[in-house]
Amino acid sequence: MTEAADLLAPQEGKRERAKAANREAILEAAKKVFAQLGYETATVRDIIRGTELASGTFYNYFRSKEEVFEALADDGARRFRPILRAARDQAADFEDYIRRALIAYFMFLRAENQAEGRPVSERRPHVHADTPQAIAVYNEVREGIEDAIARGVAPNVDADYLASACIGMAQELGAAMLERTPPDVEGASAFAAAFVLGGVAGLPRKS
Amino acid sequence: MTEAADLLAPQEGKRERAKAANREAILEAAKKVFAQLGYETATVRDIIRGTELASGTFYNYFRSKEEVFEALADDGARRFRPILRAARDQAADFEDYIRRALIAYFMFLRAENQAEGRPVSERRPHVHADTPQAIAVYNEVREGIEDAIARGVAPNVDADYLASACIGMAQELGAAMLERTPPDVEGASAFAAAFVLGGVAGLPRKS
DNA sequence: TTCGAAGTTGACACTCCGTCATTGTATCGC
DNA sequence: GCGATACAATGACGGAGTGTCAACTTCGAA
Asked: B104: domain CATH number?
């Protein structure tokens, strides 16, 4: 073990580095392929062809096409959650939180769609209601609402329903805003914020 | 040609009857298979195995697995649209319309989920944002809103955004309501109606 | 330097799809 | 009734994708 080399490049063994690089290469290739062909059309072989690896190697890293996709998606969710959390921490009041959160979400949707090259017209925002990362988003939003209620800045309403309603609304609204050229992030955010705040005001309080 | 038989069973030729029966058998089998295995896992062969037909015959009736699914889904949409339309025609005012429409939609979701044996926990209501019948629902809702605006019973807001927001909200809220036991149709409808009405009240008017 | 563990490779077996030449049969003209 | 004809059913088949695995290569510890 040469100490100089060690200091210059204090990395793990060649093996580890190769593994990390391979995984990264597959993810990178997958992102491109999904963008070009879409999830359905893309094949595992298409993905691996975008790397220097052999087909079998793919399965050392991911169990299936779905799993790479999940990995890419999780990546997105992981990037998004701290933003949502920050919005919550920085917000002056409930109204401000809603506004910040919605803008963050719409920016996120736009970024996701662009990253994957999904045609805007496809009307299918990336975060689905039945994926793990959607559940993460749901939990985050719900927590934010419960927190706001606990601190007395939001009225005492059904947090589960409100979180569901907000996410659903944001989802569809996100798709609608992506269909406009240019993507109407500002307009949709303003609309959504007004809608949510008015909606919350109109809601019956819990027992 | 015996006239008695003709009067008793004034049906088309044997050919026509057989075709109709086959189509029906495939649809029936498909419904069961989709319910049991889910859309992804189910194969065309699984479906055809549920009938007395050969694999090739499937393609005389549907071009693909997707097309049978669409046929089943369209069936649902066709049943739903008149209900929504009726809600619109019978409603006393905008508030009443919203309430009726939401209840109709939630009942529809519940029925769909039950009909397809989809586990309630799956959190994926049948009507997606990217299917033809979802677009039909969207158009219906949007028309209703535009109509209400034209008649002056609703404020002049962005109908596209409002329709998107309402549908998204109803979608997720529908899933959330289906997760409660028993399905909380009344509660969710009341929640949604209050939310939408409050939301609309809070919305900025269009130029 | 050597050797075992870890990783890579691509051929292979399997599954599913959609097609099509062949076979079967209802309908129609005579 | 009896062919002739058109229409539908059949299932074997070619094409494509998937995931596996035995053989092979490479790394790094001793």
From this structure: 1.10.357
Check whether residue B111 and residue B167 sit in a common domain: yes
In B, minimum Cα distance to A177 occurs at B161
For testing the chain B interface, which of A94, A106, A173, A206 should be mutated: the one with the most B CBs within 10 Å? A173
Which range of residues forms the domain containing residue B111? 71-202
Beta-carbon separation of A198 and B199 below 8 A = yes
Instruction: Single out the residue of A63, A61, A62, A36 nearest to residue A50, CA to CA.
Output: A36
What integer is the mean pLDDT of A104-124?
Answer: 59
The rounded distance, in Å, linking the Cα atoms of B130 and A204 is: 33
Q: Where are the alpha helices (DSSP H) in A9-93?
A: 14-41, 44-49, 55-61, 65-90
Contact A168, B172 (CB under 8 A): yes
User: Region B101-109: what's the mean pLDDT?
Assistant: 80
Residue B3 has pLDDT above 50, yes or no: no
Residue B206 or residue B184, greater confidence: B184
Same structural domain, A96 and A151: yes
Residues of B in contact with A173 (CB under 8 A): 161, 164-165, 168
> Are A143 and A84 contacting, i.e. CB atoms less than 8 angstroms apart?
no
pLDDT digits (tens, 9 = 90+) for B183-200: 788 899 899 999 999 999
The CA-based angle A152-B172-A153, given to 5 degrees, is: 10
